[in-house]
Design goal:
The protein is about 25% helix and about 30% strand. The chain is α/β, with parallel strands linked by helices and about 120 residues long. A three-stranded parallel beta sheet has the order 1-2-8, with helices on one face. Strands 3-7-4 form a three-stranded antiparallel beta sheet. Strand 1, helix 1 and strand 2 form a beta-alpha-beta unit. The mean pLDDT is about 90.
């Protein structure tokens, strides 16, 4: 099969690249190649509402596992309440959502050094 784009590694950056390319350029044939058995490893990624633009939040929204309207940071001698929205993406949820949406574009358990050249 011929591919327009090949991405090595499915941690956050590579996976988000696939997610977004499929949104804005659905005609592209993209293949993500990962030597591990999961997408995203065992991570939790978080971002504050003001870390990214409203447009970016819109396309990330389906991947978000949890959101909080604010939170409190506590230390032994002080604490602080932050009223900004905070979102988290859990790798377990991320893996499920990526597989549901893009299973045909993901190749897991594959050592890229042993992979025959992809036709790009």
């Amino acid at each position: 099969m011929r591919h327009d784009v090949a991405i090595a590694g499915v941690w956050l950056a590579g996976s988000l690249l696939l997610w977004r390319l499929k949104q804005v350029k659905p005609h592209l044939k993209v293949m993500l190649v990962e030597q591990g058995s999961k997408i995203g490893g065992d991570q939790t990624w978080g971002f504050h509402e003001n870390d990214i633009s409203a447009k970016q939040r819109d396309w990330l929204r389906p991947l978000v596992s949890s959101e909080w309207s604010g939170y409190e940071v506590r230390f032994p001698k002080s604490n602080r309440k932050l009223n900004s929205k905070y979102s988290a993406i859990l790798s377990m949820d991320f893996d499920i959502k990526m597989r549901e949406r893009h299973a045909d574009s993901i190749l897991l358990n594959t050592d890229i050094d042993k992979l025959e050249p992809l036709k790009i």
